[in-house]
Structures are given as structure tokens and as C-alpha cells.
Amino acid sequence: MTPNPTPKCTVLIAEDDDLVRTIAEETLHTAGYHVVSVTDGQAAWEALPSVQPDVILSDVRMPRCDGFEFLQRVRRDPEFTATPFIIMSAKAETADQRMGMSLGADDYVTKPYLPRDLLSTIAMRLERGGVVLEAVKQQQRFLTQVLPHELRTPLTGVIGYAELLVSTGQAGETLTPEELLEFGRNLQRSGQRLLRIAEDFTLWCSLETKVAALHSTAGGERRKTAFITAEILQHCSLRAAEFGRGDDLKMEVATEEIEGLGEGLPRVVLHLVDNALKFSLPGTPVVLTVREQGGACEISVRDEGRGMSDEEFARVSVMRQFERDHFEQQGLGMGLALARSYARLNGGEFRLRRNDPERGVTVQILLPRTGAGRLPTASGA
């Protein structure tokens, strides 16, 4: 039996067969779930607002409102669109299973079913649903807190210095060359920060769109770009100098070119170096390595910073900065997500590991060379 869910979860069952419904109720009650059961899709739809189920278990063939119509209603409702929905159908009705999945069902169980199969399916969907819910919460936090802050700060600088220029002109006064230089530099910095935000989003959207397109087609020829390693390293050196850590950045390079799809690789590598510099102390090394390994180009960035917890390793995603409330940082937290998306686009691997027993983390991207095929997906990150 699947262990009791914690905290107690609510399952809404829509099933017109009395025997099947009773068996499902008893199975779930015994496993520790709170169960609400009804006899058709219309009754289930009417019960949704008051029940607020954590998962829905629905038959397909029911009177008044069948399982397909019920599923469509649920998926159109913003309040329940992410609620795990499992359809039940007879073993012979494979067309029903395909139809349900195409309409947005998360899983299915075939009748008659063993209690352990029902419980394991529900437990798996609840677990995955929790991950989705957490991702939604992170995106909501990003949209309501992080993004407004990241946009407001440079915009305040732009507007503030523009107002100073306007008020100076209205007063018929002039600025000294030193004041003009200071105003111009501050406007330039604020504008560059806004531009970086826009470019990061544009790159991430482009990578994710291309990954989705590759998954939905039968492959085909994919033209790669040969990036000059020295040019990427030059940008990284300039960034280290901006941090006042030019001597901390160590570069170990054994290949003159890096092949990759799209135009985002230089920005991806720069992000990884930028992260390593942000989260490690001056005087500690940040090592950027580019080399050939087993038919692939390996790009890795190693630091000796504060590192990451197990939870943080498991939750690397776009729009996420770890412990932002305790560690003040600029930016959108997109560096690792961009690296992972770029690796996926190229059929490569994204790896993230602690430098145990030493401090810090190492981020690694493996990009297969032309003709080497896709690399096996790494476990973990």
C-alpha cells in the first residue's frame, strides 16, 4: 500500500457505477485520503468550488455530463486548470484513454484495477502536481516581487537623471562637464541593465521555443554555429574586471571553437561566470574550463562560493533566485535555467554538482560535436 498522504489530501471521484465507486472510496479512505464521490460529471462540476480537490478521479462514460466534458470544463477554469485529473476507463477502451490525454488529463487507470495501482497513480500525480504548484508560486512571486524590483531600480535611475536634466534646462542653467559625464554614465548603466533584462528574456523564450519545436518534429538537419572560444573568453574577462576580480578568473582552454545551435552560447557562458563571481568571495578562484570530452565539448565553471542545498539543486528553474531575501543580488536568476535550456536544445547535458568536500559548485554543459548524436540525459539536474 502507498503510505498515508501528509497532509490529508482530498480526492473527488466521479463514477456512476456503484460497485466501482464504492471500491475506490474504500481504497482511498484506507490509504488516508479524504474522499468526496458523486455519480456523474455534472455533480462533480457543481461540487468543485466547495470540495477544492487535490486530485480528480473521473469515469469517462457517465450520464448528464461525461468525463470528457467534465475534463474540458475543469481545464478551462483558471482555479482548477492545474489540478491533477485522472480518467478511469475499461481496459479495452484505449481510444477513451487517448482522447482523455489529448484533452488535458494527467493520467489514466484501467478498470478493473488493483488498489495498489490506483494508489500509486494518485500519489505520483499529487507529487508532480505539487511541483507544478510550486513552480506557479515561484512565477507569481517573480512577477509580483522580483521583476517589478528589477525593472523599477534602473527605471528610477533613468527617470531621476532625466528629471535633473529637464529641471536644469528649465532653470536656464548649465551643467559642468564633470556633471554631464556623471549623469551620462548613470543613465548608461541603467539603460544597460534594462537591456540585459530584455535580452535574457528574449534568449530564454527563443531557446524554449526551439526546444519545443524539436520535440514536436522528427528531427532533421540542424545547422550549428561555430563560436570562437577566444571571443567568449574575452567577454568573461571583461566581466571579471567589472567585479574587480580579473586575477580570480582562471581559464583553462583546450579547443579553439565550440559548436552550438542558435546564437545564445556566449551569453550562457557569461551568465555562468557572472553567477560564480557574484556568489564567491574576492580572492577565491573561479575556473572556466573548455575542453573536448568523449565526442562532446565540455564547458564548466567552478567556484568556491557558498554553494547550494539539496533542495536548491532539485529546484533549478527560470525566474528563481535562491535565498534572495538573505543574499542581496541583482538580476532575474536566469543563468542556470538558460544553461539547461541551451544544453537541451543541443541534445547535450546540463550538470550541477557540489565540490565536496570543498566549498562551492561546478556547473557543466556538454555539447555533442557534429555527427556525435545526442548524449544520454544525465540524472539529477
Please, could you describe this protein's structure?
- By secondary structure, the protein is an alpha/beta fold.
- It has helices at residues 18-30, 41-51, 67-76, 94-102, 115-170, 177-216, 229-242, 265-278, 310-314, 335-345, and strands at 10-14, 34-38, 55-59, 85-90, 107-111, 225-228, 249-253, 257-260, 286-293, 296-302, 349-354, 361-368.
- The protein has a five-stranded parallel sheet, with helices on both faces.
- Strand 11 and strand 12 (361-368) form a beta hairpin.
- Helix 2 (41-51) packs parallel to helix 3.
Which short descriptors sum up this protein?
381 residues, alpha/beta, Rossmann fold, Heat Shock Protein 90, 5-stranded parallel sheet, 5-stranded mixed sheet, disordered C terminus
Short précis:
The chain has helices at residues 18-30, 41-51, 67-76, 94-102, 115-170, 177-216, 229-242, 265-278, 310-314, 335-345, and strands spanning 10-14, 34-38, 55-59, 85-90, 107-111, 225-228, 249-253, 257-260, 286-293, 296-302, 349-354, 361-368. It is an alpha/beta fold.
Which CATH top level class of the domain at 224-368 fits?
Answer: Alpha Beta
- Contiguous helical run count: 10
The stretches of 5 or more residues where confidence is low (pLDDT under 50) are 216-221, 317-332, 376-381
Largest sheet: 5 strands, parallel
Spell the H/E element sequence: EHEHEHEHEHHEHEEHEEHHEE
Can you lay out the helices and strands and say which pair or pack?
Elements: E1 10-14, H1 18-30, E2 34-38, H2 41-51, E3 55-59, H3 67-76, E4 85-90, H4 94-102, E5 107-111, H5 115-170, H6 177-216, E6 225-228, H7 229-242, E7 249-253, E8 257-260, H8 265-278, E9 286-293, E10 296-302, H9 310-314, H10 335-345, E11 349-354, E12 361-368
Parallel strand pairs: 1-2, 1-3, 3-4, 4-5, 7-9
Antiparallel strand pairs: 6-8, 9-10, 10-12, 11-12
Helix pairs in contact: 2-3, 5-6, 6-10, 7-8, 8-10
